[in-house]
Amino acid sequence: MDSTMSTKSKWWLSGASIPIMVWTLVPIVWIFATSLKSDAALGDQSKNTFGNFWPKSPTWANYKLIFNGGAKDLFLPALWHSIVICLSATIISVVLATFCAYAISRLDFPGKKLILTTALAVSFFPVIAMVTPLFNLWRQIGLFDTIPGLIIPYLALTLPLSIWILSAFFQQIPWEMEQAAQVDGATSWQAFRKVVAPLAAPGVFTTAIIAFFTAWNDFVFSLNLTSSNARTVPAALAFFTGASQFTQPTGAICAAAVVVTIPVVILVLLFQRRIVSGLTSGAVKG
Amino acid sequence: MFRSRPRRPSWTRAAGALTALATAGALLAGCGGSSNGRAQLTWYINPDGGGSDPTKGGQAQLAAECSTGQYKIDIQLLPNSASDQRTGLLRRLAAGDSSMDLMSIDPVYVPEFAEAGYLAPVPSSMQADFEADRVQSALDAAKWQGKLVAVPFWANTQLLWYRKSIAAKAGLNMKNPVTWDQLISAAQQTKTTIGVQAMLYEGYTVWINALVRGAGGQIVDNPGATYDSLKLGLNSQAGEDAASIISKVSSTGVGGPAMGSSDETASLNLFQGPTGGFLVNWPYTYAALKSAGVSWLNDVGATLYPRTVASDPSAPPFGGIDLAVGSKSAHVQDAYEAAKCITSPAHQAAYMVATGNPASDKSAFTDPSVEKAFPNGIAALIGQSLENAAPRPQSQYYGDISTGLQQQFSPPSSVSSQTPDKAQNFITQVLDGKALL
Amino acid sequence: MTIAADRAPKTDKPVTRKRTITDRARGERSLGWRLAGPAFVVMLFVTLYPILYAIYLSLFNYRLTDPSGRKFVFLQNYGVALTDSLFWQCFVTTFIIVIVTLAVELVLGMAIALVMNRIVMPRRTLRTVVLIPYSIITVVSAFSWLYAARVDTGFFNHWLHFLTFGGFNLDYNWFGGRWSSLTIICLSEIWKTTPFMSLLLLAGLAQIDSSMEEAAQVDGATWWQRFYKVVIPNMKAALMVAVLFRTLDAIRIYDNPYVMTAGANKTLTLSMLVANETINRVEIGMGSALAVILFVIVLIVAFIFVRGFKVDLTTTGGRN
Predict the structure, then answer these.
(1) Radius of gyration over alpha carbons of chain C, in Å?
(2) Residue B92 to residues A138, A141, B101, B339, C45: CA-CA distances in angstroms?
(3) Lower Cβ count inside 10 Å, N or C end of chain B?
(4) What are the C-alpha distances in Å from B272 to residues B98, B259, B277, B341?
């Protein structure tokens, strides 16, 4: 593919990437810049430079606020809960969805329309309306404020999404190879394991990432179904305080935002290699 | 050709681990309560400057200090905004949560909780203790249908903050009571601003209520009435006076460029900035200005809240926190004992110094450590303001009334003499279930 | 239609042929449910109870703080909601946001996907950078854009002031009016969710056989012709999923306007209305009714989309 591209269009594409990256990064640099501002600099433009963007005297005070004393007990467990809960929900839903989507896109069986329609329907029930019934049920059966008590509602967010995205991916895969395997005498199950799984892996990775970020992003469930044993980061942000309860915790929120972004960016960096190689050149074109 | 390796399923293992996790979680959730005969009280606290750190002088420290051999007080932090705190508590109370031993609640929600039967009655033996030496506004706010239903803890009020040099330039004598009209023309004359809270949030209700009360009116004429007989007092001269001040602050531009989206922090920022002249805000203002390192701290003055009409004394906003005990708590007596310890005069004064949240106990305002933390007579001024302060309407429908009010008065640039009338009709319809909010 | 091809009648050995088909069909049927069943069951378990309960509650006049006053009112809540001006205002606001964000995201997402697909340098950096907003929590993104646009803490006004050589008012209050508030809300939403779009579109692009495009190029097709005639039709399924999911997600927009305006200046959305009723007002009956209405709106839009795109995900093989 690269060989067919002229040098000129290569330069064009490189040039086009600059505005894309600026658009993407400015709000992030802005969060970082804001996290370095003192309370005084947040309200006083003369203490900042570059159009009220960057503080003249950056301070780590906001990071100290979230990493020591009271805010430490708030933030660090929340980070751990977020990671455990979101990873569990992602693994469970992607595993289940892979089987399900394979069946839907490859096999002929009654009821697959029902599954897809249900997946779509339930995934778009307003999350807000699920909170109160779940809260009542969770309190009765002891799931309130537990890690499984949050994994389960997160499955409701991630599973339908995973089924749909994977079904779409699986349709784009050249199934002739599976047929070839079947002609060679393999059963459907063998064909699935030996031929389809490697073909599908890139799609599965992409789906896993999307599912993970969907769970990672949730605010409403976490705020309402947890107290302290399972509270995740987005909800914990609502519990930050400024110097007094009337002071907006602007700096602390931004500092926490930067901290929670770092592990996810690392995750993106690690996964990105697999996704990119998988999506672009891996299975399909060889 | 196949660049991606097939993934080995460690799925079964993961599923097993998760099942184990689920079981463990369920078991853990079943535990709790008391251990070794020492009761465990849970205190749901609103965030203050101390957070959950028991060494920062906040409620977390009071919890540690008031734990005894008989009970230990654990804290649970509530969200930051008053309405989120209410929601969190309400849902647990409605579900009959037995861990609701002690709650820090905004006084405006006391009627709603009391009316729903969520609050355990105050033991008659302690009533006198909880009422002793409290400022009037705090006492009023902790009562429902004439009975004390919550323990006044700390009490808040707004003051008028100003820059002495600017007031002098405008020829205002701040020793005498000032009116909003005077302030507006002073700000116009000196090209400065008046910091107010007029965003769509609870703080806007605080302002509207103070203006209406300052003109001798009331938002709810018959507090405690059920929705079918509730009478609103917005459609009155007082309501119109309030609307005309809001509209004037907005139309003259003295409310600042972003008046319609200003909360406490934004209005303080405005005051701190180059156009700052006047500000209505809570007492934390002084400490906030000091810690922001403003160079003109000596130029900062404070006085009583501005008057709505020249002839009547102002009705400064009232806020703060009451302690309440949940009716389903397994340790009601212990919880009230703890509340007594937490709200003792010494603890209130210490709390006021550490967090800047004023006491409801009168003696605190002459305490030397408090006078040091609120210098230049500000401590005494807070006490005086609290005596005059007017609570927001007492009603079990407070949430609806407040939100309806904020919506109809937003944005402040749209406020006209018809607004109070419109707000009154709208809120009545909402309470009747005929309109959405 | 691969399965259909298998079933195409062959002339020789009709009897044996018939037996193998039935066996295979039966095996496929049972394997299908064995593979799809667990996901289906879990999905029903985690969602069906709350949904049915909400539908049930929507028929009551029920305030959480007054359980004894609970009253069966049948469809009255729906009647009040659908004739309320605030409901329709929220409806309009929500759909303005959906249409604007979707249009911008589709164009922007496709552009980014095209660049990502073919770029040589800086390939990896770009792909990583583009993914970052997606990993950022919506609430955080909302705070970032809120602080950026505010008069006191922000930089927007300063930068615009500079770019317009002083023409832009430094004191412009973005959150003072409906359209300016919606602009910032949409910007935050677009920034946060365009990566989702690009990622799915990129996946679709990558599935396209580049030899087809090359053949078109040899035939003298312009870039636009290749894009329109070769690229788009070949990534229809990925496009469909991306657009559908983004639309249905955008209809339920909550976090951004909640953080930025809390519904001031007519920026209240349908989800916020549901939250106001259920969470703030604890009017569980009315809130549930609104949730069901929102749900039905979503279903209608989904139906229109699936019909409009005419891509049936359930079709075996997907290549008609």
Answers:
(1) 25
(2) 12, 15, 12, 20, 24
(3) N
(4) 46, 15, 9, 38
Preceding omega of B411 cis (within 30 degrees of 0) = yes
Q: Is the pLDDT of residue B81 over 70?
A: yes
Instruction: Name the token pair of A285.
Output: 């074109």
Which residue shows structure tokens 């949409």?
A: C186
- Residue C139 has its nearest CB partner, among A13, A30, A219, at A219
- B301-327 burial, b at 16+ Cβ within 10 Å, e below that, comes to bbbbbbbbbeebebbbbbbbbbbbbbb
Distance CA C307, CA C320 (A): 16
A214 and A158 in contact (C-beta within 8 Å)?
yes
CA atoms within 13 A on the CB side of A104: 31
Question: Quick one: pLDDT at residue A274?
Answer: 57
Tell me how far apart the 2 most distant CA atoms of chain B are, in Å: 89
* Contact status, residue B321 vs residue B328, Cβ threshold 8 Å: no
Distances (CA, A) of C27 to C21, C30, C156: 10, 5, 62
What phi, psi does B71 have (nearest 5°)? Answer: -150, 155
The domain over range B10-156+319-383 is classified in CATH as 3.30.1330.10:
no
Instruction: Collapse the DSSP code of B168 into the 3-class scheme (helix H, G, I; strand E, B; otherwise coil) and give the result.
Output: helix
> CA torsion sign, A201 to A203 to A207 to A209?
positive
pLDDT digit string, tens, across residues B379-409: 999 999 999 999 999 998 998 999 999 999 9
- The per-residue pLDDT for range B82-111, each reduced to its tens digit, is 888 898 898 888 878 888 999 999 999 999
First to last CA, chain A: 12
Cα–Cα distance measured from residue A50 to residue B109, given in angstroms and rounded to the nearest whole number: 45
Asked whether C199 and A210 are in contact (CB, 8 A), the reply is yes
> pLDDT tens-digit profile of B142-162?
999 889 999 999 999 999 999
**Domains B10-156+319-383 and B159-315+397-431 alike in fold:** yes
Rounded alpha-carbon distances, angstroms, from residue C319 to C236, C242, C315: 11, 19, 8
User: Between chains, do B51 and A69 touch, taking CB under 8 Å as contact?
Assistant: yes
Q: Give Dmax (Cα) for chain C.
A: 86
Domains of chain C: 58-315 (1.10.3720.10)
Q: At what angle do helices A7-35 and C85-118 cross, to 10 degrees?
A: 130
C chain contacts of residue A267, beta-carbon cutoff 8 Å: 135
Q: What is the ipTM of this complex?
A: 0.80
Question: What stretches in chain C show pLDDT beneath 50?
Answer: 1-17, 314-320
144-173 in chain A: CB under 8 A from chain C: 152-153, 155-156, 159-161, 163-165, 167-169, 171-173
- Cα–Cα distance for residue pair A191/A181, rounded to 1 Å: 6
Domain extents in chain B: 10-156+319-383, 159-315+397-431
Q: pTM value?
A: 0.82
The Cβ of residue C159 has, within 10 Å, a number of other Cβ atoms equal to 17
Contact partners for chain A, using 3 or more CB pairs closer than 8 A, are B, C
CB contact under 8 A, A168 and C317: no
| Among B63, B109, B87, B103, residue whose Cα is nearest residue B324 | B103
Is the domain covering B159-315+397-431 a CATH 3.40.190.10 domain? yes
C chain contacts of residue B201, beta-carbon cutoff 8 Å? 262
State the Cα–Cα distance between residues A273 and A264, nearest whole angstrom: 15
The amino acid that residue B411 corresponds to is: P
